[in-house]
């Protein structure tokens, strides 16, 4: 992603989006990213002071403020039409976001908020394919970004980590050089790609083609 790009305003209310979520608790950051049908990846901003949906636990007393995350999802779902969201719940322990993801799907779904784990040996193949697709679409100009400086930093920090069968995952060079906004961008893009495959945008395109044909007759 290009550096020093101006940070664009969020898309207008009512825009259809797909989202990614990467959950943590007290070390890594927690993020929500979104992608439009046209391929713009952006960081939603919420609340009266328009905070980005990227939370550093160090600025919140050492723990991710789950109430803030819930408030952000409320506003995102009020402002936009969320088509699909892929959510990494973190490790399966007492700080996992699994129950939160299930609650979001009950509230905003159904079948919109889906767990999508970015770690673990059983996920190496799926993560590798998602990374390859993100890289290819970025290189070919199929996706752009809003210039979020936090995301740009996390993208710069990200490193390819060798895995089995000549595949790779995503990692950070040092513990304090975070990559969570990069991971979440990949989740948002994977959700958007799968939604397009499932027909996202087709109904609108078919309507426009039909309307255009009608005008010509």
Furnish the topology, listing elements before pairings.
Layout lengths: L15 E7 L7 E7 L3 E3 L2 E2 L4 E2 L1 E2 L10 H14 L1 E8 L9 H11 L4 E3 L8 H16 L4 E2 L3 H9 L1 E4 L5 E4 L8 H18 L4 H15 L1
Parallel strand pairs: 1-7, 3-9, 7-8
Antiparallel strand pairs: 1-2, 2-3, 2-6, 4-5, 10-11
Helix pairs in contact: 3-5, 4-5
Task: Explain this structure.
It is built from 6 helices and 11 strands. Helix 4 packs across helix 5. It starts with 15 loop residues before the first strand and ends with a helix. The longest helix has 18 residues, at 180-197. It is globular, with a radius of gyration of 18 Å. The protein has 217 residues and is of the alpha/beta class. The strands form 3 sheets. Strands 1, 2, 3, 6, 7, 8 and 9 form a 7-stranded mixed β-sheet that branches. The chain has a single domain (16-216), classed as Nucleotidyltransferase, domain 5 (2-Layer Sandwich), CATH 3.30.420. It has helices spanning 66-79, 98-108, 124-139, 149-157, 180-197, 202-216; strands at 16-22, 30-36, 40-42, 45-46, 51-52, 54-55, 81-88, 113-115, 144-145, 159-162, 168-171.
From the structure above, extract its key features.
217 residues; alpha/beta; Nucleotidyltransferase, domain 5; 7-stranded mixed sheet; two-stranded antiparallel ribbon; 6 helices; 38% helix; 20% strand; globular
């Amino acid at each position: 992603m290009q550096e020093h790009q101006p940070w664009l305003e969020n898309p207008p209310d009512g825009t259809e989006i797909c989202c990614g979520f990467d959950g943590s608790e007290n070390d890594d950051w927690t993020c929500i990213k979104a992608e439009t049908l046209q391929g713009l990846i952006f960081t939603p901003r919420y609340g009266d002071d328009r905070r980005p949906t990227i939370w550093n636990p160090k600025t919140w007393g050492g723990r991710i403020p789950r109430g803030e995350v819930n408030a952000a999802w409320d506003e995102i779902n009020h402002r936009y039409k969320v088509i699909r969201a892929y959510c990494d719940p973190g490790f399966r322990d007492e700080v996992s976001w699994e129950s939160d993801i299930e609650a979001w799907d009950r509230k905003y779904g159904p079948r919109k908020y889906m767990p999508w784990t970015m770690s673990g040996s059983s996920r190496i193949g799926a993560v590798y394919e998602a990374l390859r697709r993100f890289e290819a679409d970025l290189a070919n100009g199929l996706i752009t970004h809003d210039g979020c400086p936090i995301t740009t930093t996390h993208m710069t920090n990200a490193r390819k980590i060798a895995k089995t069968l000549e595949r790779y995952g995503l990692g950070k060079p040092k513990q304090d050089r975070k990559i969570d906004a990069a991971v979440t961008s990949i989740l948002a893009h994977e959700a958007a790609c799968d939604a397009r495959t499932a027909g996202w945008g087709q109904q609108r395109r078919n309507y426009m083609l039909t309307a255009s044909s009608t005008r010509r007759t």
